[in-house]
Amino acid sequence: MLQVFDCDGNPNERQAAEATVYAALDLLNELNNGSIDKEVKTIRRLVPELFSYLDEAAGIVEELKNSAEIPEESLRALCIAWQYQKSWIKAKQAERRNDYKSREREELELLEDELGDRFHEVGDAQPFHALPQPSALCSR
Fold first, then answer.
1. Verdict on whether the full-model pTM lies above 0.70
2. Is residue 35 packed enough to be buried (19+ CB in 10 Å), middle (13-18) or exposed (0-12)?
3. Average pLDDT value for the chain
4. Where are the domains positioned within the chain?
5. pLDDT at 120
6. Which three-class secondary structure string do you get for the chain?
7. CA angle, 130 as apex, 49 and 136 as ends, to 5°?
């Protein structure tokens, strides 16, 4: 839920991500562990600032829908590939990194087969390269 896209290539929604974090913070409060109260309060205060990347991603995807003239399903596949790329870049274990690279490659190959000559035009779309990077806290 904290990643930019869901498993279907749709942008995740800020409200859902915030609700997930707030629920986790509520559970932490229920532990009644005084040693983490300060940190929980700090995170709760920061939550509204943590997910601006999701708003930005939704806007960029909408822009791509309107300007790149590609089928929505192809755009979702491109978003899935982007998410896999970000996952393999962040992966610390070689096995996970290789798995995400393989999945990214599969998505891109399917997309290239579907779009043919237009594949490179779509992949090079400037707004796609501007997709935001989630903060380290949100990307776990």
1. yes
2. exposed
3. 85
4. 14-129
5. 76
6. CCCCECCCCCECCHHHHHHHHHHHHHHHHHCCCHHHHHHHHHHHHHHHHHCHHHHHHHHHHHHHHHHCCCCHHHHHHHHHHHHHHHHHHHCCCHHHHHHHHHHHHHHHHHHHHHHHHHHHHHHCCHHHHCCCCCCCCCCC
7. 40
